[in-house]
Fold:
Amino acid sequence: MLRLAAESSVERSKLAYERLRSSAEETTETLESAFKVASDGQTAINNKAIDLLRLNANSFFDLAKSLTEAKSLSEVVVLQTQFARTQFETLSAQAKEMSGLVQKVATDTAAPLNAAAVRTFGSKPDLAA
Structure:
């Protein structure tokens, strides 16, 4: 009788350990996946920021060249005004583009975590509560 109880206890302990180990492995895989997505996303954001910086710097250099070739003060004013208007529109579009990219990276990064929450809780937890 005592032996049977001990064997049963050992078996339950083995099962509990196996569930714990499996859960820990799944959690590790989920976190690794989320970190990989976040890292790749951050690289994409950095690359996009560098590209936009390069484009904006080239625009400023083009303006500087145009200003040095201007024949009159009124032409300088026109060039500067056109540049300011164009640059405002460009920067506004770039800000929207970066915002969209950041939002996509955040959503993609959260996807493995949301999937794990659904597996664990049956639905995505309400974090606003």
